[in-house]
Specification:
The complex is a heterodimer of chains A (331) and B (553).
Chain A: H1 9-32, H2 50-60, H3 73-76, H4 123-132, H5 141-149, H6 152-161, H7 168-181, H8 187-192, H9 201-212, E1 229-231, H10 238-244, H11 257-260, E2 268-270, H12 292-304, H13 310-321
Antiparallel strand pairs in A: 1-2
Chain B: H1 3-27, H2 33-61, H3 69-72, H4 74-88, H5 96-141, H6 143-146, H7 149-167, H8 171-190, H9 197-225, H10 229-353, H11 356-390, E1 397-400, H12 402-412, E2 421-425, E3 432-435, H13 436-453, E4 460-469, E5 472-479, H14 507-517, E6 520-526, E7 532-539
Parallel strand pairs in B: 2-4
Antiparallel strand pairs in B: 1-3, 4-5, 5-7, 6-7
The chains are: A mainly alpha (331), B alpha+beta (553).
Chain lengths: 331, 553
């Protein structure tokens, strides 16, 4: 058996150096092993057929989709207002009043469902729904296609982009493709990607509060929301309070219940995306909050169920403003 | 049997084979291994997505995952896969596969719905779980509440029960929490209004949320475990595989039938080939026989040609000889005639002188001269006959009577007929068209045969002519010889067949050929020991052309 090596200062130093290095590495790893951010940056724009995007862009602005040619998609999804409608309710074909506040058309590709009540799962189905909705376009595909087919320039453009030419499938696809191209990366996305100077200290504080207060429980993911449904008034009865203020409960207020008819789905809505929220006033499906501050107040009251100092809420509002992105180039 | 009739059953058989083959081909299921492979791939991908989602769900529950995107992002792709699987499950006879895919789809839909509800509970639960302790410690630190130990204790108990429930979300624990909450409420109501009333109410609200959402989540998680999406996918895979195997075995059966049918077709072809070969062999035999006959015919023709050549040569020789004889014969005749005349002139004065011996000598000499002249005439007649017989100078078809030809022939055959009795029985016959030298040859042949057959003592040859029909002349040459033996009867007309030692055996075959060319035929009647009759039947003259009548064989 080999005898133990004699005591050596060099060996001791080497061992200590290793230990320090190991601890340092662990510390470093620990420092980096933070839980992942609940908000994710917008992924880069997908490769879309430019011809189809252009055709969708043209259809988006085409009033012939409406029964009486009075409104187009862009009438209620204004690019000057974050892709939403500044009016509490939009006005559709024949002057019909909409039932809910129009949500933003931006970044809809990252919503797992469309419409406030989460009733449609794909953009194409959503297009079908609004085309037929008597309060929106009050039309039908045969009617709309009939009018569009009279436009020879449009027909030939469709013939170039789609083998089957202009029909229901290609019109839906063009519009959906265009909608998928409407992405609005923001300052906050740059921050998430590592640009520490993209947002200010206050905005960072606001983000931190957003997380700590638990807003992030529902408003998370790529779209800061848009990937789940939730009861509006989970911790405080929103509708009771609203009724007390004089607004009766209407059909639109039932939310997902209108689709599934299950009692547990009453007053359950799709959690909206908070991207561009600073631009899309008024807020909530019933447009009951005119400002972002009011909306934050309501959220604290009925969804978080906890008090918060006004300063914190102000910081959160500041943070929310960083979610506004560059609007896609209009016409 | 005509060709059409013979071909009909074969054609029907071929059509039946073709029809059966086409039917089998049409009903052979196409086994698309590509589609089957794609279906299995899709199921595998779906399983992976499902497993990944399950893992993400666990991470969410453990708070390792802070956003729900991974739970919802695979959904569109999963829907697309299920739709494509439903499409691939089509054209399935029993419907079991379609049902399996539909069951899988239903399981996935149910699971997605459960995950969706889980998200709702989870988000609120986590918020309340984070907030409740902080809210509690806030209340604790406030001066007023600190002054109420009972309230403090109750609140503490409530928090303890809540945490216990979170750790073990059973009904008993839940009830305990609710009981503790009731106590706190009771205490607060009993007290005069507290400044922290709102805060405590708030805490109780959150505790309620925790209890409610935690219980609901527990139920959902149990349900998610029972979702059985993996099992449904396994069943769908099994159903796909079963259908594929079934298709493969059906295809194999069809192919086996096709193979059997092909075997039958090959056998039929082989049989047909065999039959063709056999037919070819018999054809070959027939051809060989035909070739033999033709060769025999050829030999006979050759012999006839040689004979004709000989005759021609003979004819030329005869003509030459005749000419050579005719000239000196003329001299001889004229000389003898002159001698006779001179003798006549000398005879008269000799008679007047009365010299007996001179007269006798002169008269004897005149008799000799007269005999000599008769001999010359006889020679001349023979030569004329010979010339007539050969007729080399005119080989043309002419109209004639058979009797003329017979007479010419008989004159030439006189030495052959010596010692035999010749009987003529000529009837009234019409003219025929004939090549005289050839016809003479025929009659000479028959007469020669009859004469040679007739016995040396008492032999008789009878020649008769008559009209057998208004357009048919009959010449019978009969002998009273031993007759023709039955075994020789079929062969007498064969070339080179002879019962005598002399001769080349061509006579009768050549005669038959000549008679046939004259649009006639030769009949034979004979009984052994009763002689034989050869009858030549010839068509009467019809056309006035100089063409040679060519009778088909």
């Amino acid at each position: 058996m080999k005898p133990f090596p004699p005591f050596s200062p060099v060996r001791l130093l080497a061992r200590m150096a290793c230990l320090v290095a190991w601890t340092g590495a662990c510390a470093l790893m620990a420092a980096h092993a933070q839980p992942p951010e609940p908000l994710k940056p917008l992924p880069p724009a997908p490769q879309l057929d430019a011809r189809k995007v252009d055709l969708g862009r043209r259809l988006f602005r085409d009033p012939r989709l409406a029964r009486d040619d009075s409104v187009a998609c862009i009438s209620c999804h204004s690019f000057q207002h974050g892709g939403a409608d500044p009016r509490a309710r939009s006005i559709g074909a024949g002057g019909a009043l909409g039932t809910v506040n129009s949500p933003s058309i931006f970044n809809v590709a990252h919503n797992f469902r469309q419409l406030w009540n989460g009733g449609t799962r794909t953009l194409e189905d959503q297009i079908d729904a609004v085309l037929a909705n008597p309060r929106v376009f009050d039309s039908s595909w045969p009617q709309a296609l009939g009018k569009l087919r009279a436009d020879t320039a449009l027909v030939s453009a469709f013939a170039q982009a789609y083998p089957q030419g202009l029909d229901r499938a290609s019109a839906r696809d063009a519009l959906a493709t265009y909608e998928r191209s409407l992405l609005t990366p923001s300052r906050f996305d740059r921050y998430l990607r590592g640009d520490g100077l993209a947002i200010s200290m206050e905005e960072k504080k606001g983000y931190d509060l957003f997380k700590r207060y638990g807003c992030v429980a529902c408003h998370q993911g790529i779209n800061v929301g848009g990937n789940m449904l939730q009861k509006f008034g989970a911790l405080g009865d929103y509708f009771q309070a609203r009724e007390a203020a004089g607004h009766k409960i209407g059909e639109a207020d039932r939310g997902l219940y209108n689709v599934t008819k299950r009692p547990e789905d009453l007053h359950v809505f799709k959690v909206p995306s908070l991207r561009n929220v600073a631009l899309t006033a008024p807020y909530f499906h019933d447009a009951s909050a005119a400002t972002l501050e009011e909306a934050v107040d309501v959220m604290f009251r009925v969804q978080l169920g906890r008090p918060a100092p006004g300063a914190d809420k102000a910081l959160i509002v500041k943070f929310l403003r960083t979610l506004s992105g560059e609007a896609p180039l209009a016409p | 049997m005509s060709l059409g009739l013979r071909a009909a059953p074969a054609l029907a058989f071929v059509l039946a084979l073709a029809g059966l083959w086409a039917y089998l081909l049409w009903t052979t299921p196409t086994v698309d291994a590509g589609r089957h492979g794609r279906a299995l791939d899709l199921v595998r991908v779906l399983k992976q997505l499902d497993a990944a989602r399950d893992a993400d769900l666990l991470r969410v529950r453990l708070d390792l995952l802070r956003d729900y995107d991974p739970l919802v992002q695979p959904l569109p792709r999963m829907d697309a896969i299920l739709a494509e699987l439903a499409e691939l499950a089509l054209d399935d006879g029993s419907g079991a596969l379609g049902a399996a895919v539909a069951a899988a789809h239903a399981a996935f839909t149910a699971k997605a719905d459960m995950v969706d509800r889980f998200q709702r509970h989870d988000s609120l639960l986590k918020n309340s779980l984070r907030y409740a302790p902080a809210a509690y410690s806030d209340i604790q630190q406030h001066a007023e509440a600190a002054a109420l130990p009972a309230l403090q204790a109750r609140l503490g108990a409530l928090m303890g029960a809540t945490l216990a429930f979170v750790g073990a979300p059973e009904t008993a624990n839940g009830l305990r929490v609710q009981a503790a909450a009731q106590e706190v409420r009771g205490l607060v109501r009993a007290q005069p209004p507290l400044a922290q009333r709102a805060a405590i109410d708030n805490l109780l609200t959150h505790v309620d949320v925790i209890v409610l959402r935690q219980s609901a989540e527990a139920v959902l998680l149990a349900g998610l475990e029972q979702a059985g999406t993996g099992a449904r996918l396994d069943e769908a895979t099994a159903a796909f595989t079963r259908r594929f195997e079934e298709q493969v075995s059906r295809q194999a059966r069809s192919q086996a039938s096709l193979l059997a049918l092909s075997g039958v077709a090959v056998a039929a072809v082989a049989a047909a080939l065999g039959w063709l070969v056999w037919r070819g062999a018999t054809e070959l035999r027939r051809m060989r026989q035909l070739v033999e006959r033709t060769r025999a015919d050829l030999r006979e023709s050759q012999a006839q040609l040689i004979h004709a050549e000989k005759m021609t040569l003979l004819g030329e020789v005869v003509a030459g000889i005749v000419h050579e004889i005719n000239t000196p014969l003329g001299y001889l005749r004229s000389g003898l005639e002159s001698a006779g005349d001179n003798l006549g002139a000398v005879l008269q004065p000799a008679r007047e002188r009365g010299d007996g011996r001179e007269l006798e000598a002169l008269e004897e000499t005149r008799g000799l001269v007269r005999d000599g002249l008769a001999g010359v005439d006889q020679i001349h007649a023979t030569i004329v006959n010979l010339l007539n017989f050969s007729r080399i100078d005119r080989s043309k078809v002419v109209r004639c009577r058979v009797e003329n030809s017979l007479e010419t022939t008989l004159r030439l055959a006189s030495h052959i007929l010596k010692g035999k009795v010749l009987v003529r029985r000529y009837g009234q016959t019409r003219e025929i068209q004939c090549d005289l030298p050839q016809l003479n040859q025929v009659f000479l042949n028959l007469v020669k045969n009859a004469a040679q057959s007739a016995p040396d003592k008492g032999g008789q040859v009878t020649i008769a002519t008559a009209m057998a029909a208004p357009d048919l002349v009959r010449v019978d040459i009969t002998d009273n010889g031993p007759g023709i033996l039955p075994e020789d009867r079929p062969r007498i007309f064969d070339p080179f067949f002879t019962t005598r030692g002399t001769g080349n055996g061509l006579g009768l075959s050549i005669s038959q050929r000549i008679v046939r060319e004259h649009r006639g035929w030769i009949e034979v009647r004979s009984q052994p020991g009763a002689g034989a009759t050869f009858s030549v039947l010839l068509a009467t003259a019809q056309l006035a052309t100089g063409k040679e009548p060519h009778a088909a064989a």
